[in-house]
Amino acid sequence: MMQVAIADSVFHRLQQAARKRDVEVSAFLETMVEEYLADDQYREEDDPAIGFLDGPTDLSIRAKAILHEEIQEYSDTSNSLSIF
Q1: Which runs of consecutive H residues, i.e. helices, occur in the chain?
Q2: pTM
Q3: 15-19, 34-38, 59-63: which has the minimum mean pLDDT?
Q4: Which residues contact 44 (CB under 8 A, 6 or more apart)?
Q5: Cα dist. 34→2, 7, 26, 72 in Å?
């Protein structure tokens, strides 16, 4: 029952917006979709997958070696910063 009320409300708002532009609801929706698709361009900086997959490409083959190298880099840095 709630879904019907929401659908009716949305359709009523679409009818109001279409009337203001003196067009049918279907034509109004087509125009909205066309404008959205025209503006919808891929932006790498907005893509959450970029950075998520960031890393060495040979990780599956060299996982232990890469981990060892990173530990060594961290150990060398922490030793050089040590006061003792």
Answers
A1: 2-20, 25-39, 59-80
A2: 0.41
A3: 59-63
A4: 50
A5: 30, 22, 12, 55
